[in-house]
Predict the structure.
Amino acid sequence: MAEQIVREDVEKLIQAPSACAEVVAAGKRYLEAVGTADEAAAREALVGELKEDVCSIDDLIAFASSPDGEAVFGKEAAAATKTAAEAAKANGEPNCLCDACQAGARILREAGEA
């Protein structure tokens, strides 16, 4: 039997500023499908999208260390993000620290996929 995905986590995911359009759409489809014949397919689509989108802590460190990361965050914020990510990694955090990745990682665990 599939594990229970917590509605609140899906809502946090779709409201996260860092969530991409595809995962927001998959999250909304899943919430609309809960309790219907379409739930299993919507769940599978959401989990599949999250498997593609949730970044590792190493990905975050690499991005924050790159010119692209500096362009997105700004130089000081990129350095602060890198420092925070390195500290989180040292404490065992496997995933990116952004709201979307944190919610996505919780959903994958809830779905028995992580």
Q: What stands out?
A: Residues 1-54+98-114 form one domain.
